[in-house]
Structure formats: C-alpha cells, structure tokens
C-alpha cells in the first residue's frame, strides 16, 4: 500500500518516495520559545508527531528534527521587559514546552536543535551565500539577493513582480532591493550578540532552519512541515537559501497544516483570543485535545469551541470505556470458568479486526487522513461492544481486540496507558464492587443499592452480567 502526500509546492498528491530507501529525513519548524506554546503551535506538533509515528509503523527509519528558535526580537523584548537574560527565557520556555508536549503525547524529536547552539553552521551558511554572490553585507547586516533566485515565490505561487507590488515590504535603505531579506542582523546596543565576519550580531529568522536542516539531515530532505502561516515568507526563504547555495532540491515534500479559528474567528494577538496549552490542559484532558486536533483533516481550518471540545470528550470516553470493559472482561474470563467461543468465531473476529486495521492504513496512506482513520477506531469500538454482549467469550478474542487498539493507538496516541490503568485498577472502586457482591449474596439489597448509588454519583456505571460485574466510567 503506497503512501500519498499532498505537496504544497506542486499542489498535488504524489506517491511518497524518500531520497534514501527506507529512511525518512523530516524537519518541522518548532516554536519561538519566548512564551508558553498555544494551540496554534500544538496543531502541527501533534499532527507531525502522528505522521512520524505512521511512517515508523510502515517500516521507515525516521530522523525527525524539531527546532527551537531561542534568539530573536521576541525573546529580546521579553528580556527587556522582565530583566531575565535571553538564554534564561529560552531555558524556561523550552522546559515548559517539553512538559506540555509530553502531556499531549508528543514524542521527542530525534534532535531538538537550538539556534544558539548552531551559530557556526549558520555563519558558515551565510558566508557560502556571499561567496556565490547570493548575499551581500550592508552596514553590518547581511541580505539575500532575492533577484538572484528566479524561482523565489514557487512555494507560495507568487512571482517577484507580484511580491513587489502585492506584499508590504519594509523600506530599508541598506537593501539593494526592497524584496531582499535579512540573513544576519547587526547587534543594537545591549542586545545579545555573536562575532561574525560582518561584525557582532545575530541570525535572521529564515536562515536558522536552512542551516540546521543541512547539519542534521543533509542538503536534501524528504519532508518539511509546519503551519500554513509559515509558507510565506519563512519556507519560501528557506528554499531560496538552501537551493541557491546547494543547487539541488531542498525538500521533496512540503506539508502545511491549516489555521486554527476560535469560535469561528481567526486566532490572533490583535483579537486577544489565543489559548495557551498550559491553561487549556487545566480544564481539558490532554488526550481529548489530541483527539480534537486529529478530528479535522490537517490541511483544513480547525475551529476551536467549547462545543467541539465537549464532542471530543464524548468520543474519547467511548473509546476509553470500550478498552476498559475489554480489560475488565479479560480479567473476569481469566478468573472464572465460563463457556468459551467456538474456533470459527475467533477466526471470524480475526478477519473483521484485520479488515478494520487495513481500512485504517488505507486512510492514513491517503495524505494522513486522520478523521477517517478515527472512524476505523470507532468501528473497533462497535466490534468490541458486540463481543462484550456475548456470554461465550474467549480470552483470545479479547486480547485480539486489545492488540488492535494498541496498534492503532501507537499511531494516533489518543489513549494514555497511565489513564487506562488508573481507571481499571482503582482500588477503592474494586473494593466497593466486592462489598456490593457480598451484600447481594447475603441478600442485603439495601446496602447493595447504596453502593451502586454511591458509585453512580462518582460517575461509575455498574452492569451485572453472567460473568460478573462490569463497570465503566460515565
């Protein structure tokens, strides 16, 4: 089953063929670490985590790079406002990033490079552009000669003339051409700085990703990802820098996720409607946030609202209840002597489960269609619930379904192992259920009903079955 990816550069789906067989070189633009990450940052981080997981499921060895921009104008302003140094600010918010990312089930990248740790590579890259007359120094700054790269605009599908008249360009007399962009900025008094052949200063934003992609992945990478807002100018400039210097394709596949809206309005600082992840996780479970992010195709806009989060919460609860009930039934089957299923019934379940997993793979192979892939998970929920209604169940059937859940969840990451175990093994709940069972045996119906009501108030629903008591969270 081939994987097809929509390439933002060509605006077409194309069969995925990595530069090197069975290996994927993947770079995703990470956050600027001057504050906590917001849900706009979280969307690409969650989605591309799933892309990486799925490629690994398909047998690829994925080298995955997510950078931190740990020096730029925003960090410098934050430093001036707080009195903290730029490195202190970066360290604070990088630690916060890892805390939030771990909560959201985002696996650490192969490398998380920082701009400040790659200054030599950035300076060498800029010097290489100057040596090819693709860049020039002016007053301690260094600029890229946009006109020297005729394909500039091919990602955003704009030509240089359109860019000149259709895009607001900052007037700067130091530039040879208004469309040129900065590679190195001369330091202002009091700013953090590094030595360079052009004087003390710091990198421009665009150059960092070109230099770090080259260092950690090579001159040509397979997948470059990020939010749609990065397509122009950031990724456009990366192409110009990297392909201008090396004379070869920089990224074989460009992938961009859509914007996030808040209650049908675009999320923006000017509207003051941004939501940071740390605050959101105080009221919404992390796996619910992750499910919500994956419930819309990555290239489409995603609308955040309380109603949408409530729907995601209900959907996740359905999946969690199914898994919890399967595990509980497996414990019961292991404890009790009960009728087991016929061999042909087990084989039938194997075929049905395999068909669901195949449909999951078909959807994920088609440009990582997570909403349709989630529908395969709910097919598994229905199949599990049907089995749980039967009296004769074999442990192999239960293990088969649980294994299928694990297989799909290894890609989607919407079930948290720690949460599932906590729900299943809550000692107090198990003790109360055991007490209720004894009360029923003693025909102490009043106490049995009291316990049922107590558990129901805590969101625990009991179901008396021939195999014993099953419970689930409401």
Give a topology summary:
Layout (H helix, E strand, L loop, with lengths): L3 E4 L4 E4 L7 E6 L10 H19 L3 E6 L6 H10 L3 H18 L15 H13 L3 E4 L2 E4 L15 H7 L14 E6 L14 E3 L1 H13 L3 E7 L3 H16 L4 E7 L2 E3 L2 E2 L10 H4 L5 H9 L7 E3 L1 H30 L7 H23 L4 H19 L6 H18 L4 H8 L2 H15 L3 H13 L2 E6 L2 E6 L1
Parallel strand pairs: 3-4, 3-9, 9-10, 11-13
Antiparallel strand pairs: 1-2, 5-6, 6-7, 7-8, 11-12, 14-15
Structural descriptors:
474 residues, alpha/beta, Rossmann fold, Four Helix Bundle (Hemerythrin (Met), subunit A), 3 domains, 4-stranded parallel sheet, 4-stranded antiparallel sheet, 16 helices, 15 strands, elongated, nucleotide-binding, tRNA-synt_1_cat_dom, zinc, cysteine-tRNA ligase activity
Description:
By secondary structure, the chain is α/β, with parallel strands linked by helices. The protein folds into 3 domains: 19-135 and 146-153 and 208-304, HUPs (Rossmann fold, 3-Layer(aba) Sandwich), CATH 3.40.50.620; 307-423, Anticodon-binding domain of a subclass of class I aminoacyl-tRNA synthetases (Four Helix Bundle (Hemerythrin (Met), subunit A), Up-down Bundle), CATH 1.20.120.640; 426-474, no CATH class. 50% of the residues lie in helices and 15% in strands. The chain has helices spanning 39-57, 73-82, 86-103, 119-131, 160-166, 205-217, 231-246, 277-280, 286-294, 306-335, 343-365, 370-388, 395-412, 417-424, 427-441, 445-457; strands spanning 4-7, 12-15, 23-28, 61-66, 135-138, 141-144, 181-186, 201-203, 221-227, 251-257, 260-262, 265-266, 302-304, 460-465, 468-473. Strands 4-3-9-10 form a 4-stranded parallel beta sheet, sandwiched between helices. Strands 5-6-7-8 form a 4-stranded antiparallel beta sheet. A 3-stranded mixed beta sheet has the order 12-11-13. Helix 10 (306-335) runs parallel beside helix 12 (370-388), helix 10 packs antiparallel against helix 13 and helix 11 (343-365) packs parallel to helix 13 (395-412). The longest helix has 30 residues, at 306-335. Residues 419-425 have low confidence and may be disordered.
């Amino acid at each position: 089953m081939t994987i097809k990816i929509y390439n933002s550069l060509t605006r077409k789906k194309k069969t995925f063929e990595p530069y090197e067989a069975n290996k994927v070189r993947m770079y995703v633009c990470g956050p600027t670490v001057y504050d906590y990450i917001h849900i706009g940052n979280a969307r690409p981080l969650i989605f591309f985590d799933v892309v990486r997981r799925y490629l690994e499921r398909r047998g690829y060895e994925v080298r995955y790079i997510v950078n931190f921009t740990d020096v730029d104008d925003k960090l410098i302003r934050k430093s001036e406002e707080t009195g903290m140094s730029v490195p202190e600010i970066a360290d604070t918010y990088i630690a916060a990033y890892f805390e939030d990312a771990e909560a959201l089930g985002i696996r650490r990248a192969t490398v998380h490079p920082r701009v400040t740790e790659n200054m030599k590579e950035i300076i060498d890259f800029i010097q290489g552009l100057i040596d090819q007359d693709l860049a020039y120094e002016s007053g301690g700054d260094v600029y890229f000669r946009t006109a020297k790269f005729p394909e500039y605009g091919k990602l955003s599908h704009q030509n240089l003339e359109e860019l000149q008249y259709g895009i607001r360009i900052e007037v700067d007399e130091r530039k040879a051409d208004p469309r040129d962009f900065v590679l190195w900025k001369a330091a202002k008094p009091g700013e953090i700085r590094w030595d360079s052949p052009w004087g003390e200063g710091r990198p421009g934003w665009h150059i960092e990703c070109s230099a770090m992609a080259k260092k950690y992945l090579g001159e040509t990478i397979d997948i470059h990802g990020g939010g749609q807002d990065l397509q122009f100018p950031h990724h456009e400039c990366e192409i110009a820098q990297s392909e201008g210097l090396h004379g070869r394709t920089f990224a074989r596949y460009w992938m961009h996720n859509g914007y996030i809206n808040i209650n049908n309005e675009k999320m923006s600082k000017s509207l003051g409607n941004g939501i940071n992840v740390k605050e959101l996780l105080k009221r919404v479970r992390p796996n619910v946030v992750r499910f919500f992010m994956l419930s819309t195709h990555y290239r489409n806009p995603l609308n955040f609202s309380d109603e949408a989060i409530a729907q995601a919460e209900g959907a996740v609860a359905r999946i969690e209840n199914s898994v919890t009930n399967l595990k509980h039934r497996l414990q019961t089957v292991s404890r009790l002597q009960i009728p087991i299923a016929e061999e042909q019934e087990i084989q039938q379940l194997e075929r049905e489960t395999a068909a669901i997993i195949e449909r999951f793979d078909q959807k994920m192979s088609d440009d990582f269609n997570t909403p349709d892939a989630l529908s395969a998970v709910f097919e598994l929920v229905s199949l599990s619930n049907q089995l749980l209604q039967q009296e004769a169940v074999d442990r192999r059937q239960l293990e088969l379904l649980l294994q299928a859940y694990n297989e799909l969840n290894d890609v989607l990451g919407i079930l948290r192992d720690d949460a599932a175990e906590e729900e299943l093994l809550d000692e107090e709940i198990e003790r109360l259920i055991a007490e209720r069972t004894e009360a029923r045996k003693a025909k102490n119906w009043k106490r049995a009903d009291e316990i049922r009501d107590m558990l129901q108030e805590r969101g625990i629903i009991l179901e008396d079955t021939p195999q014993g008591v099953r419970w689930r969270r409401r």
